[in-house]
Design brief:
Number of strands: 21
Number of helices: 14
Number of domains: 1
Largest sheet: 9 strands, mixed
Structural class: alpha/beta
């Protein structure tokens, strides 16, 4: 199968190239990039005049483990959607389930720190679903520190998961924020030995909880320096809030000292998690300057009125999805903080996409357009288009070349050591994977809102996954399920 994208503006962040070029795709690979590339007989020719052709976006932080979620992300320019912050367990079943159901986008998972701890400390057997993982997050039995024997046991489970193809270790430290810091160092040492990255939702900052065992972002810097592990700080915007200046300074100092610390952010002032999360306890919300009214239940739309109702919901269904407002995007100062996180040198865009739920309990649909009534966080549908709108079109903080560097090239490079197959992603080199996005630079924008979160982004004209069209002429192709697994190969 051959496709020629003719007459477009090609952007290849690996070569620092931004200019007119044709792109020829043959059998799922990029076969040629240049001026006036000849179309072999039988080639499908796409007129890309006025459009940008670049490597598809690689999302390191997506919990949208469904055809429906992947389709929303495809319309947002994503070609590879990976769950690396939370991970899934057992990893072999996670990959098998995705392959059996089919996926529009490439997929992959990290080894789940919370899943391994829950199995050893609480006797909870994971079932490789994100929904059951959400329920576990509110269970206090796995949130304590470990005995030496327990620590050895769950580290062994993580080693087994890495051997089975996990793309690193996902650490939800923010959900067990009082655990002994030595345990986190033990995880970092394991990662360094195995040659894999960690992906961490950090514990509380010292500014919001002076009693925290260690400042969450400083802990990343300490572990990276002491062990040499590659350590990724997830959604620095949501965990830092109004302290992002200090946090980014800490991480920049660590990077200047030679530590392998990377950072991600998303362009929203509200996050999403399970209502039973440790940091949503009323006393912890107060430490952040927030309250119950900052929390909205996803399925019902209920804004929590008071602490009594918050306690009730946390007891009743700790795994229920909710939205937490931590910045007000209508306030110029808060909007500036959000942009600051995105503008941090080498920060990558990652969505933290959430599952799509319907009132009847479904969390997937093969219909397109999606059936009405679906609920999720708008970042599931709009993260990348919103980042492009804010940082390129509106503020000019990024060039288009820089945007593709942060959305495609740098995310792939974080995975190069653990997954050699990632080296063929995030660029337009001959022989690279034909995971491509073709977008209208003047029209690309998000449309999803908190009130209507499943509205697809606009401006992605074509999207190819392994050379197979998933979006054509701005319309999603419901018959396309070309996604393949990206697996880890630890040394």
């Amino acid at each position: 199968m051959q496709t020629l994208l003719r007459g477009g503006r090609a952007i290849d962040p690996a070569r620092n190239f931004d200019g007119a070029a044709d792109v020829l795709v043959t059998d799922g690979k990029i076969a040629a990039v240049g001026s006036e590339v000849e179309a072999p007989p039988g080639t499908t020719v796409i007129d890309a005049t006025g459009l940008i052709i670049g490597p598809g976006f690689i999302d390191l932080h997506s919990h949208a483990h469904s055809i429906a979620g992947h389709r929303l992300q495809a319309m947002d320019g994503v070609t590879t959607a990976l769950d690396l912050e939370a991970g899934l367990m057992p990893i072999a079943r996670a990959y098998a389930d995705a392959a059996a159901a089919g996926r529009p986008l490439h997929y992959g998972f990290s080894a789940s720190w919370s899943g391994a701890r829950a199995q050893v400390l609480a006797g909870i057997e994971p079932d490789a679903s994100f929904e059951s993982g959400l329920a576990v997050l509110g269970n206090p039995r796995w949130q304590r520190s470990s005995s030496p024997r327990e620590l050895a046991d769950w580290l062994s489970l993580l080693e087994d998961e890495l051997a089975s193809g996990a793309l690193g270790i996902g650490v939800l430290m923010g959900y067990a924020p009082l655990t002994e810091p030595a345990e986190f160092l033990a995880v970092a040492r394991l990662a360094a030995r195995a040659g894999v990255p960690t992906f961490t939702h950090v514990r509380e900052l010292v500014e919001t909880d002076p009693a925290t065992p260690v400042d969450g972002s400083t802990e990343i810097a300490i572990a990276a320096a002491e062990t040499g592990a590659a350590m990724h700080h997830c959604h620095v915007n949501s965990t830092s809030g109004r302290h992002v200046d200090r946090v980014l300074g800490t991480l920049e100092e660590s990077r200047r000292a030679g530590s392998r610390v990377t950072v991600e952010a998303y362009p929203y002032g509200a996050g999403s998690t399970a209502i039973g999360a440790a940091f949503l306890a009323p006393e912890r919300l107060r430490l952040k300057g927030l309250g119950p009214t900052s929390v909205i239940m996803v399925e019902s739309g209920e804004r929590i009125a008071d602490e009594g109702r918050l306690h009730q919901l946390r007891r009743q269904d700790p795994g229920a999805s909710c939205i937490l407002e931590f910045l007000d995007e209508r306030e110029p100062r808060d909007l500036a903080l959000m942009r600051q996180a995105l503008a941090f040198p080498d920060a990558v865009v990652a969505s933290d996409a959430m599952p799509v739920f319907w009132p009847d309990g479904r969390h997937d649909s093969t219909q397109w357009p999606l059936p009405p009534g679906g609920t999720t966080h708008p970042r599931t549908a709009g993260t990348f288009a919103k980042a492009l709108r804010m940082m390129v079109r509106e503020s000019g903080a990024w060039t288009w070349l820089e945007a593709f560097r942060r959305c495609s090239f740098l995310p792939a490079r974080i995975l190069d050591d653990v997954a050699p197959a990632a080296r063929a992603k995030g660029h337009l080199g001959v022989g690279a994977d034909a995971d491509l996005v073709v977008l209208d630079p003047g029209a690309v924008t998000d449309t999803a809102t908190y009130a209507d979160p499943t509205r697809p982004s606009r401006g992605v004209r074509h999207l190819y996954v392994a050379g197979v069209p998933v979006v054509s002429d701005g319309a999603l192709r419901a018959d396309a399920l070309p996604g393949r697994p990206l697996r880890g190969e630890p040394r």
